[in-house]
Amino acid sequence: MIQSMTGYGKSTVELADKKISVEVKSLNSKALDLSTRIAPLYREKEMEIRNEIARLLERGKVDFTLWVEKKEAAAMATPINSELLVAYYKQIKELHILTGIPEPEDWFSALMRMPDVLTKVEVTELSDEEWAVVRQAVSEALNHLVDFRKQEGAALEKKFREKIANISRLLQEVEPYEKERVSKVRERITEALQKTLEVDYDKNRLEQELIFYIEKLDINEEKQRLANHLSYFIHTLESGSGQGKKLGFIAQEMGREINTLGSKSNHAEMQKIVVQMKDELEQIKEQVLNVM
Fold first, then answer.
1. How buried is residue 119: exposed, middle or buried, by Cβ count under 10 Å (0-12/13-18/19+)?
2. pTM
3. Residues ≥6 apart with Cβ < 8 Å to 233
4. Residue 208 belongs to what domain range?
5. Is 216 within a domain?
6. Looking at residue 95, what is its pLDDT?
7. Residue 149 and residue 288: Cα distance in Å, rounded?
8. Residue 2 within a domain
9. Are residues 195 and 106 both part of a single domain?
C-alpha cells in the first residue's frame, strides 16, 4: 500500500511533576526536510530522535516538537533545601556561643529568610528511566503519523485507480474514430487532387503516397505503449510504499504518449478524447507529488 506524505501524530505522557507532549506533522517534499523543536532537557537525544524520524518517515517536510508543561503543584511549590537550612541553624548556634549574640526568637522565620533556602533547583540531567518514557511517547506520535499517512495513501490509491481506469476507457474509445479517420484522410486528399488538378495523375503512385502518409499518422504503437504504462502504474501502486518518484516517472511517460496521440489524431473527436485523457492525467500528476 502506498503512503501519503501528509500526516499528523501526537502523543502525551505524564510524569510526577510534568506532562510531556510530542507532536509531529508532515507535508510533501522531494526529500526529508526535518525541523525540530525540543525542550532543553532532551536535546542531548536529538540525533537519536532524528534517526528514528528518518527511518520511519523517509520523505516529506517534517515538523517535530517536544515540549514540557509543569504540573500546577510542581510549578508553584518551591522545594525547601533542608540540608542548607540545617547548616544555617548550626552556624547561627555556633555564632551565638562564640559572640553571645542572642538566638532568634522565631527560628523558623529567620532560617526561611536565609539565602537559597527556597531556591528552586532544576534537574539538569536526564535519567535513563525518564528518557525511556519520553522515547515511547516519540514512537507513539510517529506511529500515529504513519497510520495517518496510510489512510491518506489508501484514499490516493482509490483515486489513482479511478483515473487510470478512465484513461484506459478513453483509449478504447479512440478505436472507432481511428478507422474512420483513415478513410476520411484518403477521401480528403483524393477530392483535393481532383479539384485542383486538371490533368491525369498516377493513381498507383497516389496510393503509395497515401499509404506512406497514413503510416505516419498510425497510433498503434502509442496506444500500446500507453496501455503498458497504465498497467505498470497499477502494478507499481501495488508494490508497497516508497513508490512516489517512480509513479511520477510513469505519469510523465503516459503524458508523452497522450501528447503524441493528440498530435497524430487529425480528427476532431479523437482530439476531444485526448483532451479528456490529459485532464485525467493532470489530476494524477498533481496527487502523485504527495505519494511517499
1. exposed
2. 0.71
3. 160, 164, 247, 250, 251, 254
4. 151-288
5. yes
6. 87
7. 14
8. no
9. no
